[in-house]
Every structure is written in structure tokens, then in C-alpha cells.
Amino acid sequence: MVIEGRIGSVKKLKFILDTGVIHSVVDRRVIQKLHLPVHPAQILNVNKTVAIERATLPDMQFGPVQVTAIPVLVADLADFSEFATHVDALIGMDLLRLNNLTIDNVAKKVLFDPLDKPASETSTKDDPVCMTAEVRLQDQPVRLIVDTGLQGILLYEERVLNRIPDLTVAAKTEVDIGRRLRAKQLSISSARLGSNEIDAKVWLVKGPPGNVLSGIDGFLGTSSLKARWIKFNFATNTLSWQ
Questions:
Q1: How many whole angstroms separate alpha carbon 132 and alpha carbon 219?
Q2: What CA–CA distance (Å, rounded) separates 95 from 72?
Q3: Comparing 2-96 with 132-225, is the CATH topology the same?
Q4: Residue 125: its pLDDT value, please?
């Protein structure tokens, strides 16, 4: 989902809302236009750590959300993600969790609702928490980050096969996801979220080191739900859809 926003005095920017991104990332062009200082940093991009930079924005606005003194990561977004070309920022969980979020796939709208707790209890300086869901693959549980920026299900191969050594694969091919990621595309017999059967086409990629995203087996793209609408309730850390 792409929405319009503002950073400092720079208006009419395009932001992607991406629950699979932990820390928001702003394109280097915007940072240079605002003459903001940058500092070195690192980030996990799917399954590997990459060098990046960080900066502090004076203020940012998208929809009804307005925040000040926001630490963000800085990158050339066209190089960082081929899905972020011609986009000025990826809005991640550090900012999305400030409000409940409903994505209406039919009307192509995004609705922001205040959290059911005082604003004083929420701070952008807290470590952001990913929204996760337990998906059952052939009746075995895996823990996945819910990702609005991903098409399908992406699994960390070693972690999933350690958990489900007898995973039955109906078909398997080697594919490229974008320009940088080589994966095995699979079709498995069963994938369920709660009581609902979801798209069982998945990608397997090499996972990050064991101490990175510990307990996480991959990412669940919300497109797999084939939902008319999806609601993220960050106050209760629950996901609902229809």
C-alpha cells in the first residue's frame, strides 16, 4: 500500500506501508534535500546483514500520523528493494504500531485508528515489535512475521526443515525473487492460519544466523490470506481479516 506523506518541509512524498520492515527506511535523496547528517548502521534485509546509514528526521506525517524527532534508516531505496523504486520511504513497524491499521483491499484504502490506550504509553524510541502469526504447515507450527510488503510465504529453509523434517513438497523449482535473492519455490499440501486454509505456495531461502530473529521461521505475505480487508490491532497484537 502506497500513501502520500511529508518529511520536514518536503511534501507529496510516496510512502510504502510495510509491516515486514522493523525500522522505517527513508530514501537518501530526501535526507540530502533536508541536509540532515547521517551515521553508519546495519540492518537485516530478509536473511543477511547489510551496511546502511541512519539519521534523525525533524518531523514526519502520513495520514493522521504525525511524529517528531524520528530515528530512521537511510538507503538508496531503488537498490535496497526493487519493490521500492520511485518511492521515498518504507514505513515500518516502529511507526505503524502507533495506530491500529486496517487495509481495505477492495476500496484500496488504509484506515488508521487510535490505539486503545493513552498515547503516553507509546513511544517511537521503544524497540518495535513485529506482528507474528502461527501458521501450520502440514499441521506443524511455524512462526512467521506478517508482512504487507511480501507476495506469498517466505520461509527460512534450515529452521523450517529442522522443525518439519518430513515436509512434503508437491513441486519445487529454483527462482529469483527480485534481483538479489535466490530461492526454492515450493508447493506444499497444506497451509493454515487459524481455521483458514491459505495459499500453500512458498519460497525457501537460506536463513540468517541463529541468534538473529530467534524463533522466527520466515514471513507471511498478507496476499496469501486473499482477504477483502485486514486489520492490525497493535494494542492487543492481534490480526483479523475477512
A1: 9
A2: 10
A3: yes
A4: 41
The ranges assigned to domains in the chain are 2-96, 132-225
Identity of the residue numbered 234: F
Nearest to 148 by CA among 230, 208, 78: 230
- Listing DSSP states for 87-153 in one string gives -SEEE-HHHHTTEEEEEETTTTEEEEEE-SS-GGG--TTSPP---EEEEEETTEEEEEEEETT-SSE
Q: Using DSSP bridges, classify how beta strands 218-221 and 153-156 pair: parallel, antiparallel or unpaired.
A: antiparallel
Residue at 224: amino acid letter = S
Q: What's the predicted TM-score (pTM) here? A: 0.83
Tell me which CATH homologous superfamily contains domain 2-96.
Acid Proteases (2.40.70.10)
Residue type, 176: D
CA dihedral sign, ordered 239, 204, 83, 200: negative
Name the average pLDDT for the chain.
Answer: 84
Instruction: Indicate the CATH number of 132-225 among 2.40.70.10, 3.60.21.10, 3.40.50.300, 3.40.50.720.
Output: 2.40.70.10
Q: If you search the block for the grid coordinates 504447515, which residue do you land on? A: 137
Instruction: Report whether 93 contacts 25 (CB < 8 A).
Output: no
pLDDT over 60 (residue 171) = no
- Cβ 171 vs Cβ 187: under 8 Å: yes
pLDDT digits (tens, 9 = 90+) for 43-54: 766 555 667 899
The string of pLDDT tens digits covering residues 62-111 is 988 999 999 999 988 877 665 666 899 999 999 999 999 999 999 999 99
